[in-house]
Amino acid sequence: MLSTTRSVFSGITKKPALSLVLRAMSSESYTALKVTRPCEHVVQVEINRPEKRNAMNGAFFSEIGACFEKLNDDSDCRAIVLSGAGKIFTAGLDLTDLGTVIALREDSELDIARKAFKLKKFLTVWQENFNAIEKCNKPVIAAIHGACVGGGVDLTSACDIRYCTEDAWFQIKEVDIGLAADLGTLQRFPKVIGNDSYARELAYTARKFYSDEAKSMGYVSRILPDRVSLIDAALDTASLIASKSPVAVQGTKISMVYSRDHTVKEGMEHIGIWNQAMLQSSDMMEAAMSQMQKKQAKFSKL
Ligand SMILES: CCC/C=C/C=C/C(=O)SCCNC(=O)CCNC(=O)[C@H](O)C(C)(C)COP(=O)(O)OP(=O)(O)OC[C@H]1O[C@@H](n2cnc3c(N)ncnc32)[C@H](O)[C@@H]1OP(=O)(O)O
Predict the structure, then answer these.
(1) Secondary element (H or E) of residue 13
(2) What are the structural domains, with CATH classification, of the chain?
(3) Best mutation site among 5, 12, 47, 52 for ligand 1, i.e. most ligand atoms within 8 A of its Cβ?
(4) What is the DSSP string of 83-144?
(5) Is the C or the N end of the chain the one with fewer CB within 10 Å?
(6) Cβ distance 70 to 76 under 8 Å?
(7) Are 290 and 235 in contact, with CB atoms under 8 Å apart?
């Protein structure tokens, strides 16, 4: 029990020393992730605990946040594919880490307020690790095969685009383990599918939904026959995005994320202020000239 406690809370203690984490990861060596560069300006981030069905443990949470913060600053990266190694995309929270919450609840040396403060801090760190995907200016395409359970829906809700395989299934599983989802599903999922009643049904019942239903509700935009064609399709889309002006693409993501949480008027004001600078970018001239000359545009690093 004690060692589990330490492993989960490692997500908290590592966070303030982010620069150390980033330096340690400068070679892109992670324990729960595999990061590769399959094509120009495209990075593939793979959840890499296949023997545990990519269950999300403490290492995964701290690495995913650090990885996306690093990719945000990586001028060679213009689009990202997020996938899972092995049989399924992810089984969600590593249930062996639940022991940590139980251990904290039962810690007789802490009063209820102190336990609550510790739990809030722990949850905020984990939330921020998923928020890093949305804060990363590069579009993220989730490539989901097999199962996407619990935390997997929190994770993929934070992505820009979702593709899945025919055999994929999804489950907002948290109520089945006695908690309300707290890593973004309840906030993002209803906005992604644009149907509050449907989102509530899935969150209250924890019923599984399969690829065809995920597509019809708008959670995924494409279904591919198998994992190989899924990764190919996700990489093709990522490459297409990466071929465009990074100023235009990243401005588009920033504006779409901002506009989701603001009024139309505020969103228009925001993009107006944004573009008063970005319309002066050299990318506009390069893109327009390339269109006229029917040649591939080349954009400098951002
Ligand atoms: C409080 C913090 C906020 C976060 C909240 C998040 C909440 C959630 O994510 S709720 C959802 C939790 N997940 C589950 O309930 C799923 C449990 N797993 C399964 O139902 C099945 O494993 C699954 C259908 C996904 C896959 O089945 P399959 O037959 O392909 O594999 P298994 O033989 O069951 O498992 C293989 C090994 O992986 C280990 N494992 C699977 N899931 C988890 C998990 N969630 N946590 C930890 N370990 C997991 C499983 O124990 C097997 O390991 P081993 O026995 O060592 O071979």
Answers:
(1) helix 2-14
(2) 2-242 (3.90.226.10), 246-293 (1.10.12.10)
(3) 52
(4) EE-SS-SB--B-GGGHHHHHHHHT-TTS-HHHHHHHHHHHHHHHHHHHHHHHHSSS-EEEEE
(5) N
(6) no
(7) no
Query: Exposed, middle or buried by CB within 10 Å (0-12, 13-18, 19+), for 66?
Result: buried
For the chain, state the CA radius of gyration: 20
Mean pLDDT of 126-141: 98
Residue nearest to atom 39 of ligand 1 (CA): 52
Judged by DSSP in three states, 210 sits in strand
Closest CA to 76 of 40, 46, 38, 44: 40
Structural tokens at position 205: 């019942």
Distance of CA 178 to the CA centre of its chain: 24
- Interface confidence (ipTM) of the complex: 0.99
Residue 29 CA: distances (Å) to CA of 1, 24, 75: 28, 8, 19
Q: What is the model's pTM? A: 0.91
Residue range 175-204, pLDDT digits in tens: 999 999 999 999 999 999 999 999 999 999
Which tokens in the block code for residue 294?
């029917």
The answer to whether the CB of 186 is under 6 A from ligand 1 is: no
